[in-house]
Design a protein that fits this description.
The protein is an alpha+beta fold. Helices cover about 30% and strands about 15% of the residues. It is built from 2 helices and 2 strands; from the N terminus they run αββα. A two-stranded antiparallel ribbon has the order 1-2. The longest helix is centred in the C-terminal third of the chain and has 15 residues. It is elongated, with a radius of gyration of 17 Å. The two termini are about 25 Å apart.
């Protein structure tokens, strides 16, 4: 399958319907771009979007919350 998309001035692209359907990408999904260094080709993959949940009742500082959020984002992008 092959599909094209135009890059906007903000370097954004719309993922074509055929690709979204085939990969199961929905609003809120995360995607990964994988570059094959040998060929220069770029592959798009649906990334895991599991989010860890915080238990209510924990007394966390804003800094601790920020660290947890950053760690979660890094895990989603793996």
């Amino acid at each position: 399958m092959e599909a094209k998309a135009k890059v906007t001035r903000n370097y954004q692209v719309t993922i074509p319907l055929e690709v979204r359907s085939r990969l199961g990408i929905e609003v809120g999904s995360y995607v990964r771009f994988v570059v094959d260094e040998k060929t220069g080709r770029v592959y798009l993959e649906k990334a895991a979007s599991r989010r860890k949940r915080l238990r209510l009742g924990l007394k966390l500082t804003p800094e601790e919350i920020e660290k947890i959020m950053e760690r979660g984002m890094r895990e989603c992008m793996k």
